[in-house]
Every structure is written in C-alpha cells, then in structure tokens.
Amino acid sequence: MSGQQTIFSTDETKELRRLYRTLRHSLAEAVPYNDFFRVRTAISEAMAGCEMPRDRFGRHPLLHAMATTEELCHGVSPDRSMAVAVMLYNLVKLDLMPQRQLQEEWGDDISRLVDGLRKVAGLYSRQASVQSDNFRKLLLTFAEDIRVIIIMLVDRLVLMRAINHHPSEKLVSEVAMEANYLYAPLAHRLGLYRIKSELEDLSLKYTDREKYTEIARKLNETKAKRDSYIADFIRPVKERLEAEGLKFDIKGRTKSIYSIWNKMKKQHNDVEEIYDLFAIRVILDVPLEREKSACWLTYSLVTDMYTPNPKRLKDWLSIPKTNGYESLHITVSGPENKWVEVQIRTRRMDEIAEKGLAAHWKYKGIKAENSLDAWMANVRDILEAAETGPMDLMKNLRMDVYDKEVFAFTPKGDLYRLPLGATLLDFAFNIHTGLGSKCTGGKVNGKNQKLNYKLQSGDTVEIFTSQSQMPKRDWLNYVVTSKARNRIRVALKEMDKRSSELGREMLQRRFKNRKLELDEGMLSRTVRKMGYKTVTDFYSAIADDSLDINQVVDTYVSLDIKARADESARVSAAEYVMQPVADDDGRPNDSDILVIGNDIKGINYRLSKCCNPIFGDDVFGFVSSEGVIKIHRSDCPNAANIRRKYPYRLIRTRWSGKLGSQFGATLRVVGHDDIGIVTNITSIINKEKQVTLRNISIDSHDGLFQGFVVVGVNDTSTLDALIRKLKTVKGVKDVSR
C-alpha cells in the first residue's frame, strides 16, 4: 500500500496505517494472516496506476472500507467472509476486480456477500424515497444474507461519524434522516442497541444541532459521574433484595440524548422536568406463579427507601398491554432529589419486552408466522447467545422474509409492493385503475414487455397505454392481485351491461316494427329455447351480432303460437269457474273465493317465493302467464305493483282452514354481538315443538350482528309467538319477518 500514498492526504495516510495495524491485530483470529496479506496484495494491484474516485462526501473508499471493518471488529465480531467482503467490495464495485475472479479466488460465500452489497447500493441510484416501508422491505429482499444488513448498519454508522463537519448541510441532513428512518429501526430489531442509539443521536445532532447541543449542555454531569450516581442508587436496593432472598439482576443507565429529546416532545417539558433521565431495571428470577407477588414485594422495598411519585405509577402487571408487555414502572426521588424511573419485571416479562410478539407467542404456545419481527428476534438470539461465534451460524441464514413479494419502481422512483408472480398488468392496476384499463404493455428495465410479463424485485416499469384499449376477459387468466382482478371484473360487467341494454333496445325496436307485443314470460322461454343461461348474455349476443335478431323474433312467434294452441285445448286458470265450497262448519259458501290447502285437489297453484305466505296469512291469488296461480301475502312487497298492472288477473283467496305440512318462514334478527347470543336464539327455537330450525346465517360487524333464520311453522300464530320469545333474548334489538 505504500506505493499508493500519493493519492492520500497526510492525515489520511496516518489513519490508513493506523487502521492497517489495528485490523491486523483485531482480525488475527477471524482472518488468517495469509488471507489478510492476500487482501492487501489484491488492493495494491488493483489500485496500481489507478486512483479510486472519492464518494460524494470526499472520502476515499479504501479508507472508509477499512474503518468499517474496524467498527465491525469492535461491535459485531465479524467472520472471515464479512471482513474480506467489506475490504474487497470497492474493487468489484469499481470494476477493478471482476465478480467471477472474486468468486474463483475467495469462494462463493464472500462473492455472495459482495453481490448483496452491490445490489443494495444499486437501490439508491433509483432515486426512490427511502422514507417508505416498501423501500425497507426491498432492501431486506436484495440483501439476501443478514450479514449484508449488519455490514450496512456499521457502514452507515462509520459514515455518520465522519460527516460531522461536512460543508453541505443539505447532504448531511439527508443522510441523517435516512439513518433515523431506515437504519436505526433495523438495528433495534436486530438487537444492536449501541449502534441504534448512536445512529439516533448523530441523526438528531445533524438535523437539529441547536437542540442536541442544548440537551448535551444541560446534562451537565460526566458519564462517570452519572454512572456513580446510578451505583449509589442501586447499592441499597441490591442489599434489601438480597436480604429478602430474591434472585435478580439489576442494572442502570442514563437515557441517550435522542431518547431525552423524544421525551421532551411527548411531554412538552424541558430537560429538568423529564422524570426518567436515570432508569433502573430490576429483573427477577422467579417461577411463573410467584411473578406478581415478587414484583409487588420489590416495589414495596424500593418505595420504602425512596419516595415514589404516585402519579407516575404504571401498572402493566394487572392489565398487560395488547402486545403482551408486562412490567411495573415507578418513579422515585433518589439521592440529590433527582427523579429515577425503576422498572420491575421478571425474566419472562423482560424477554417479552425485549423481543415483542415473538417471545409472547412462545410463552402463549402460539406458533409465530413468518414475520419480520419474529425472524429478527431469532437473529438477535444468535447474536447474543452463540458460543461458536454468531457470524458462523449466519452463513446459511438467508433473507427470505419477503420471498412471497416483489418490489418494482416507476421511472420516477416510486416503489410498489406486489405479491410474487405479479405481472406488468397487475403493476398498472396497482398504480391506478384507469392506467390498468388502458394498458397495452410496457417497458421493463428499458426492454419492451407484454402484459403478462412477471415482475422481479428491483424492476423499473414504464406503462404504455392507448385510449382505444378496453379490458379483456382473458386478462383474468394472468393477473394475481385481487385489486386488478376486481377492477377487470367490474369493467367487464359494465361493458356487458351496456351491451345488454343495447341488445334489448334493438329487440324492442324490431318487435315494434313487426307490430308484436313483447311478453316477458314468453321472452324468458325464448331465451331458454335458444340456449342462453341469462337474459344479459342473450341481449349481449344480439348486440354483438353473434345472434341473428330475426331468428329470435321467429322463435318467439313460434313459441307463442304453440302456447296459444295449448291454451285453447284446456281450461286455463284464468277461465277457471269456482264451484261453491263448504266452509269448515259444513255450510255452503257461494262467494267467488279460491280455497287453498293440502286437502284441495285439481287446482294448479304455487306459494310465491318473494313473500313465502304461510297458513293464516291474508293472501290473494295471481294468474301468471304460464297459467299457474301464484299465492302472495297481501303485504307482499310486489303486491302494489301486481294490483296496479294486472287487476284482471287477481283472484280472492283464503286457506282451507285445515292445518297442513309446515311452511318455511325467514326471520331477520338484529342485535348486539354478545357471547352466546346465537346459542340462546337456537335454544329457544329448538324448544318449540311446532317449530323446526332449517337454516341460520349470522354476519357481525363493529359489535353488531344481523342474522337470517329460516324456520318451519304450521301457521302465523305459531310464528308470532316465536317472534315474541326471540325479542326477549338479551342483546336482541329487533326480530322481523
């Protein structure tokens, strides 16, 4: 490396030599000296006669890589592959060493890490907003190996430290916001709390230097003094807990500047008014059945020594948070009258607090889904507990958290998440329904592609449209998102509706020209005769000329003539002459009333499905075009329309007076969605001897439910009695037929 000193400043040369000596010692265990010498030789040969371009902050990439490797040694203990990959990455990135050569000389593991770093770095060239949850997910997808994410976090920390005095405030602010939004949360999820805390502090420093300096100045005690204060606070507490025979860990800390700033924002207070600048955590080792009693005992011991602030008591033991968090928080006045927060919890509670739902699922016996938090918790366990070196265990730990999704960019850098297998057409509909409906194809990564092209993560997609394009039925064969599928179906239905209306108008005009009256009943028979399942399909076929309208008219006329001939050969229901019938008491009744019931023979009638009349209902008869008498309730929703349009087809009707088989009746039940309400309803129905439960369907929403109950009853009196009993059920608001 000495032959390349001319490209470095004097300070950079000194720093490079220091880093070289430090790394040679720090990496002695992870990277054999022979490998370290090979790395040095590869860098020297690649740089011979070539000056590496500096980054946008003016930093030399080699110096940055060495500093990143040093921080990895300090904070993560990297394996051989991580250290070598970081030091050689810039050679591959700048095409000073081909990827194939790297793989041949250093193996697949190092090659995969470098490739992951290159892919992640390439994301920033897309001009995408990093303040997007989709960007974070795509970042994890492209990384493929968790070690790539760890390297990125350390790399960003090293960069943040180096740009303190950079002249471009705008550039520094952008990097600081990225660190706070993207990298600090990832470090937190991985359990890399020191990195997370420093990233947050530096981010605040660069985005609001005045506030950062103010808080730092007001924290007028040195770290050593604060540590001494915490030790003085803990000492008597520790003695009392040991005297009670409790097994525990106790530790204290001073909150970071970023945490204090967050508290100031939330509480709208100054630094001096923040309660918990100092925080103590007591973690008890006790069996599950003694957890609460041990926590409250500790609370009693602490508050005996230090005066508590009752307004600041937070009891999450009695009622845990919805995410499973359990702990007892108290704020007491410690030495020098300074407020100190004390958190009391058990080992189980602490694990749930640190690892969130992943640990909560484990203790509840619930299998965790393949979620990011659960997966990250597993990684954190490896980082904290591995005996053989955490990075050795991570070689085969792949980033498959989002392997069921793809992430694609628009030309402007907007990032969209779609399910695996999504096509270019899915992408278009995901952006906007109008864009999808007019889509004719697109360009993916600069190459023209068809609508059914399956997207891959990182693709940049440009959509082509045409005003003449319309959704097609075969589009449903290759879209995978519900949004695209639903929008296509809606568009097709609208097109079918318009086509159907056009076909209906065409048929009506043709009938009018032929001076024919269009009867809906005869038309339905014509539709079935011509092989169509729905009237909509029938009219659409007329509109698109796949069905000859003259053939339709001829078929209609033919069926009409045949129906008239059949009617003349028999007495129709409309011509039926009622015979005097006897009432139930045996006396003759000469009124012209149709009597119906199971004991009545020779009359072709049916109970109408629109209102389902049952024995005892006030009813009337209606002669349909097929010659069948349909029985409707007098309060049927269709009754008014029937009486207005077809008064000449109505027949006065009554029941025979003799009970027949059960009738079906549908009841609508509305009420509060209380536990056991459905059981209470069905229990009442089952206890009724003359009632049969045939079907029940319940739909609940926002604490209310609506149900439809189909029962079999003999008459209206039985049904009315059942309705009255159902209305007495607790939680039922209304029962109607």
Task: Describe, in plain words, how this protein is organized in 3D.
The protein is an alpha+beta fold and 737 residues long. The protein contains 27 helices and 22 strands. The strands form six sheets. Strands 1, 2, 3, 4, 5 and 6 form a six-stranded mixed β-sheet that branches. A five-stranded mixed β-sheet has the order 14-18-16-17-15. It starts with 9 loop residues before the first helix and ends with a strand.
Q: Tell me the distance between the termini.
A: 91 Å
Mean pLDDT: 79
How much helical structure, as a percent, in the residues? 40-55%
- SSE-based structural type: alpha+beta
Instruction: Please state roughly what percent of the residues sit in beta strands, choosing from under 5%, 5-15%, 15-25%, 25-35%, 35-45% or over 45%.
Output: 15-25%
Q: Biggest sheet, in brief?
A: 6 strands, mixed
Given the structure, what is the number of helices?
A: 27
Radius of gyration: 40 Å
Q: How many distinct beta strands?
A: 22
Overall geometry: flat
Please mark out the parts with pLDDT under 50 across 5 or more consecutive residues, or reply none. 1-6, 355-362, 364-372, 382-388, 569-591
